[in-house]
Inverse folding.
């Protein structure tokens, strides 16, 4: 009996040395069971998150490391790994599609499930941009679902909402040209023409500035580029007072709008299908 | 007996007092419990003024103030002094506001408007449309976001009188805040939204009689309601288990900003509120008074903007949170809130050793000016010294880094541990999760330090009217979220105090016959009132 305990203790110490993570998890689970927590439920939830990670995990372990750096929102590490892989002669397009994008897709899917939060998307987005820019230098255009120009309209500088929209669009495979804040209608029109964009997202927090979005949508009508409008000062009824526009309440709405428009739908069709 | 009037023009209400100049005492107080301009915040007020004419906005505000002044029944009135943010004071005076309407410079350059100086000065009552033709004293605005109300908060709280590291916040729709470290003063202004003043909450209201302003937690929740003297008395008892309430005590009409803070606190500690959700979806507080999940999200946005602003100032000043000795909390919400509950929700920092509740400082500064107009030159001097370290939150990366954590915390249910680890990654100190012992001092029991012999809640009796020939389907009336629109056959009336203004316009947009047009509405002014002088 005493010998058996000895052996068990020895095994436990071995595990603590060799597999500290597993050891810690088992101890924690033991404590949780001791406290009467039902681990069944927790594990099920864990597996949903893990499943998402597993599904998006690249086959190549070197690519997996890149994806994980993006998931962790580690911009420096993402850049390091991308530089190394490009140095090894990896194809930049392949790197974007099969290493960097799976990372941000994972974060986005976790977000959809309530397992990840806006700040993590923003960090992952920063990491993604770091990697994508390096690849872009090599190949110019990176294949994307479509091109979106994002801005905060003239007179306003509140851009937190715009940054979230841009991040979530990128995460869903759209190329985002982020013009920044306090952007005049003229500058926005120039950018749309120069980049040949499919869609503009325009946001504003201040009700005094929302007229700029209406002006922008009306001018861009002739270019056939609609404006997705959102932000605290905007609601659907305001957006419905002018054409060539679609209202979005949440950042995820921006993705839905972009998907419709980039699939060739008109703003009228997009409104009809999304409202 | 010579008299003067002091007025605080707030975004969510206007307070006025009649003063006896012989002994500096307060004779009477009158309150307009909402700002008469359509709109829920000051930017909406400006948008209304720009869209429908600044003249109309000025007229509405002046009419409201005329009715407050006449309600106070002054005799031998010598002067009127006002205080408020730059936008309200400019609308009151009828001067340019477009330089305040845009945060980015590109829109301003387009319309060729240069920022105004807005030093403190004196105008005559008639000149700006007041019935009382006396000197009107208008204090200076420091800059776009920091007005005389912010000066008031710094001067009248005691914030400027101590050498220790301290912070002050005026808990209003636009929450002005300042941090003092040695000789340096850091200022900022967070767009908290009207939740803190009990508006934009489904059953929210200003701190007036009948408003739930606090809750006691003891075997169920006991609502505490403001009575006719603005004292807290017992109201309905709330039974959470059965989702009912017992309509006992003082009759209630709604909930104030401090009531919302108390309710959020109670919900968070008991686990009934897990942002953005409420267990059971709703909390019933009284007859027709409910608190919804949308209210939780609105409250979260306001709390988040306040904490993000305060943390940003401390970060920019380069101090540790523990260095904060004293926190001054001002405004009606700052007076009636339980500071410990406020601290729990994050809108009062976790670290100060003393919290001092200061009441309405804006009205107090207007009082000083009404008693002694020469004080204006001191304020004009002071304006220069507080200009140095203003942090514009809208363009501050620190504020953004913190505010996105707040969004996730309140709207997405992100745990505080993640909030803190994300802050640390951005090089910002995490929020302390343990509270120190704190000394709480109260400068005044009521937000208005001295009420005088009477307190009157004045309702503005005018509005916008129009005659519209239509089928009378009442879609517009039913769609109004604030119940501000009414119809009697072809005559329509908008209660401008309640109207959300240009931010809403559902009445116009939803008219199935497209006959409803807000531009057809004309301001209906009350009959002229005689003022004794």
């Amino acid at each position: 009996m005493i010998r058996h305990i000895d052996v068990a203790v020895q095994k436990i110490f071995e595990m603590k040395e060799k597999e500290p993570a597993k050891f810690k998890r088992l101890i924690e689970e033991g404590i949780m069971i001791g406290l009467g927590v039902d681990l069944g439920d927790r594990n099920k939830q864990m597996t949903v998150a893990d499943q998402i990670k597993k599904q998006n995990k690249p086959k190549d372990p070197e690519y997996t490391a890149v994806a994980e750096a993006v998931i962790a929102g580690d911009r420096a590490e993402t850049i390091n790994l991308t530089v190394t892989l490009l140095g090894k002669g990896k194809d930049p397009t392949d790197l974007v599609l099969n290493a960097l994008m799976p990372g941000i897709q994972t974060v986005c899917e976790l977000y959809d499930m309530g397992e990840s939060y806006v700040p993590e998307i923003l960090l992952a987005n920063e990491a993604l941009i770091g990697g994508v820019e390096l690849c872009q230098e090599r190949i110019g255009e990176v294949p994307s679902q479509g091109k979106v120009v994002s801005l905060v309209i003239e007179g306003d500088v509140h851009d937190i909402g715009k940054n979230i929209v841009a991040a979530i669009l990128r995460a869903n495979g759209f190329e985002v040209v982020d013009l920044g804040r306090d952007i005049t209608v003229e500058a926005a029109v120039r950018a749309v023409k120069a980049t040949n964009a499919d869609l503009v997202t325009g946001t504003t927090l201040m009700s005094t500035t929302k007229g700029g979005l209406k002006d922008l949508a009306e001018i861009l009508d002739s270019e056939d580029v609609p404006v997705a409008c959102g932000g605290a000062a905007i609601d659907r009824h305001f957006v419905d007072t002018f054409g060539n526009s679609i209202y979005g309440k949440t950042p995820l709405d921006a993705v839905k709008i972009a998907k419709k428009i980039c699939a060739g739908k008109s703003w009228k069709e997009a409104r009809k299908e999304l409202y | 007996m010579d008299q003067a009037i002091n007025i605080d023009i707030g975004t969510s209400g206007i307070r006025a007092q009649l003063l006896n100049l012989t002994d500096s005492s307060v004779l009477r107080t009158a309150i307009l419990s909402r700002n008469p301009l359509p709109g829920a915040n000051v930017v909406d007020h400006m948008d209304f003024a720009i869209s429908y004419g600044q003249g109309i906005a000025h007229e509405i505000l002046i009419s409201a103030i005329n009715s407050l002044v006449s309600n106070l029944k002054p005799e031998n009135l010598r002067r009127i002094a006002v205080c408020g943010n730059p936008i309200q004071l400019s609308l009151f005076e009828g001067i340019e506001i477009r330089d305040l309407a845009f945060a980015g410079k590109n829109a301003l350059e387009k319309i060729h408007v240069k920022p105004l100086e807005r030093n403190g000065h004196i105008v005559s009552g008639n000149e700006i449309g007041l019935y009382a033709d006396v000197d009107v004293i208008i204090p200076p605005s420091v800059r776009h976001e920091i007005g005389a109300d912010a000066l008031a908060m710094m001067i009248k709280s005691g914030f400027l009188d101590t050498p220790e590291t301290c912070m002050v916040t005026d808990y209003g729709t636009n929450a002005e805040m300042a941090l003092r470290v040695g000789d340096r003063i850091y200022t900022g202004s967070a767009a908290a939204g009207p939740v803190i003043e009990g508006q934009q909450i489904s059953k929210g209201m200003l701190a007036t009689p009948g408003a739930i302003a606090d809750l006691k937690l003891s075997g169920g929740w006991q609502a505490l309601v403001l009575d006719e003297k603005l004292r807290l008395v017992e109201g309905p008892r709330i039974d959470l288990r059965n989702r009912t309430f017992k309509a006992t005590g003082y009759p209630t009409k709604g909930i104030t900003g401090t009531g919302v803070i108390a309710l959020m606190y109670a919900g968070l500690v008991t686990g009934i509120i897990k942002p953005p959700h409420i267990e059971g979806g709703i909390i019933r507080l009284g007859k027709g008074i409910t608190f919804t999940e949308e209210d939780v999200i609105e409250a979260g946005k306001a709390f988040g903007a306040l904490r993000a602003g305060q943390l940003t100032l401390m970060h920019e000043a380069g101090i540790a949170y523990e260095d904060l000795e004293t926190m001054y909390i001002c405004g009606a919400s700052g007076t009636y809130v339980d500071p410990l509950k406020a601290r729990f929700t994050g809108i009062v920092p976790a670290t100060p050793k003393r919290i001092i509740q200061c009441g309405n400082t804006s009205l107090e500064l207007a009082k000083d000016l009404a008693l002694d107009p020469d004080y204006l030159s001191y304020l004009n001097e002071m304006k220069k010294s507080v200009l140095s370290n203003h942090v514009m939150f809208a363009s501050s990366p620190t504020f953004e880094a913190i505010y996105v954590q707040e969004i996730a915390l309140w709207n997405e249910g992100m745990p505080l541990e993640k909030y803190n680890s994300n802050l640390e990654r951005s090089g910002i100190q995490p929020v302390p999760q343990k509270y120190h012992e704190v000394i709480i001092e109260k400068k005044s029991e009521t937000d208005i330090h001295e009420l005088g012999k009477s307190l009157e809640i004045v309702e503005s009796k005018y509005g916008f009217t129009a005659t519209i020939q239509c089928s009378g389907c009442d879609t517009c009336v039913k769609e109004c979220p604030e119940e501000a629109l009414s119809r009697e056959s072809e005559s329509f009336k908008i209660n401008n105090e309640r109207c959300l203004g240009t931010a809403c316009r559902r009445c116009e947009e939803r008219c199935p016959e497209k006959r409803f047009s807000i531009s057809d509405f004309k301001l209906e002014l009350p009959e002229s009132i005689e003022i004794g002088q």
